[in-house]
Predict the structure.
Amino acid sequence: MDTTMQFAREMDKLDVLSSYKAEFYLPENQLYMDGNSLGLMSKRSQESLEKLIASWRDKGIDGWTEGEDPWFTYSEKLSERVANVVGANGNEVMVTGSITVNIHQMLSTLFHPTAERSVIVVDELNFPSDIYAVESHLRLRGLNPAVSMRKVKSDDGYTLTLDAIEEMLTEDVAILMLPSVLYRSGQLLDMGRITEMAHAKGILVGFDLAHSIGAVPHQLHKENVDFAIWCHYKYMNSGPGGSGGLYIHERHHNELPGLAGWFGSDKTKQFDMSHDFSKANGAGAYQIGTPNLFSTAPLTGSVELFEKAGIRNVRAKSLALTQYLRDLIQAELGSFGFVDVTPVADEARGGHIALAHPEAARICKALKQANVVPDFRAPDIIRLAPISFYSSFEDVWEMVQRLKTIMEKETYKTFSNERNVVA
C-alpha cells in the first residue's frame, strides 16, 4: 500500500464516513488514538444527556412516566436499538450495570454446577476484572477457583488458538467465557466456531465484547452465543463509566435471574409492590436496580450515529485505517524495534494495532508530549486505535511521523519507563 501523505488525503476524499468527524469534540492539534479505552464525546451524546437533565429539571418525578423519553422504559427502548449493533433480537439485550456486575448476573443465572460439571474456562490473556469476577463467583458457590477455573494457555503470550481453546473443553466444563477481542493484542476470535465447538460438548458460551462492540459487526443470536457482556464507553462513545450491556439468548429467558432486583420485574406489575417476583419476559429481567439514567443517556446520542453510518461501514473503515497504520509502521519504523503483535488477517483483527517494545511506557509518554494520545498496557504494549468516526487517514499518517521523530531524536529517553497510575 502507498504510505505517502498524498495517498492518505486521497483516501480521505473517498471516505464515506468523513463527515462524522464534525460530530465529535476533538482537541485542537491532538491525534486521539485511544478510543479503544475511552471514546470521545459526540455532540449527539451531549445533547441526549442535556435532554435527560432537562427532563429532571422540568418534570421532577413525573419524568418517570411523562415526556418524549419517559425514564421508566428508557433502558428497554434503548436496548432494542443496541441489539442491532450486536446482531441480537430486541428482547435479548439490556443496557444495564457494568461488565463486572453483568458477569456476576450471567454466571448467577446460567452457571448450575453439578458433581459432573463445575468448571468455568477462561483464558490467561483476559482482562483482570473478568478473572476476578469468575474467581469470586466460584468462591460464593463454595468452589475452589484453583480447581474450578481453568485458563486457556497462549503459545506466544499475545494470541489464542482454536486448538488451545478446544483442548480445554473437557467433560467437566460447564461454561466457557472468553473475550471477543483480546485487549492487548487486538486478536478477534472466531466466536461462531468457538460456540459451535463448545455446544457440541454441552458447554455454554459467553463473550466479553468490550473491545469489539462498536468496531466489529456481531451476530450473537445467529451464532447461538449463550450470553455476552460489554461496556459502551470505548468504541460506542457513551462516556466514562457509561452503563454497560448484556445479551442473553432467548432460549435462556425462562431462567430466573440469579441476582434478582426490582427493575427485573414485569413492567406492568412492577408497581404492584408484591413480594412475589414477576419476571420480565426478556433480557430486562436481568436488570438489578434502578437504571443509572445519567450514565445511560449519552448512549442514545451515540447509537444514532451507528444507525446512520451503519456498523459495516464503520468496520470497513476501521480495517482500512489499521491496515494503513500497519503499512506505515513497517515502512517508517522498521528499524526501531517495534514488533506488531496483532494478527494480520482482517477476520482475526479487532479495531487496534498493538506494538510490543521494551521502552513502551516511556514512548507512550513521549507521544503524549507530542500531542498524540496512545494507550499503554503492561508490560510492553503500545495500543493505537484510529476510530472510524473521528480519525482520518491523514491523522494516521501524521501520528506515525510524530512517532518516527520521537524514535529518531530519542526524546522518549527523557521519561521513565514505568507506567503512570492510570495507563
